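Changelog note: in this version the structure field was regenerated for every chain. One regenerated record is shown below for reference.
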Amino acid sequence: MSEAIEDSSREIDEEMNSLLEDLEKTAIDDGEDEADEDECKYARQAVVHFPLECPSLFGVSYIEVPIRQLLTWAAKEFGDQRELLLNIRQEFYNGDHEEDYGYQLNSGMVYLLTREELAVRRLEKERGRVASDERRMALEREMQLDDQRDEAERREREEEMLPFRAEQDEIRQSFETLANQDEALDAEWDRFVVERESWPPEIKAEKEQSERSRLAFLEEQLRAGYQKATDLDIALIHKVKRHSDSRAVEPPEARS
């Protein structure tokens, strides 16, 4: 009896292995075809799974949205990060793949609730609706207060910085200059990578070493510049704080 079971199990294992080998061959063939057309090595769409009961209520369990579209929306919604988000979209989700467009609203493999389970859910939802609305309104009030506090702190920081505006502008200018140098260094590396393809083999290794040393020196200078500007910025922050603290202990008539 045990021998028969072992033989049957062995046959199943062999069939499964054969099937898996066929699937692997198919996947490799498909992958090679896709690699020729599409070399993207990262996901270009985001999947949001809805709550368990969603398929029973609305017939769908998830939505799949292109990350390009999410970044476009986020850039409009979060204005202070607009440039960063659009740069990420331009660099990684530039609209050159089919997955950058459209969306998919689907159900997939789902568990459908019974009518009794749906009835229980509706009752729980109704009983918790008041508490849910109260939590939502409390969160909205808190977010509004946070915005007001942030605005008040921003105005306070601007007022504290007024006596040091010239130093602040000088440091800001330093960072802008460094950012330009940073871009120029990237351009130098781009030029190096392109030009070395045409260098004769007999001098290529020596010339590459020379160029890498030169570019490494420029990068070290840039790093030192960033460190110096950062140190000045931190020193200014401490200076402003000491000035603010000293004014806080002065009598009101001494501040005018």
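Spot check on this record: Confidence is low (pLDDT under 50) at residues 1-9, 22-36. The chain has eight helices and three strands.
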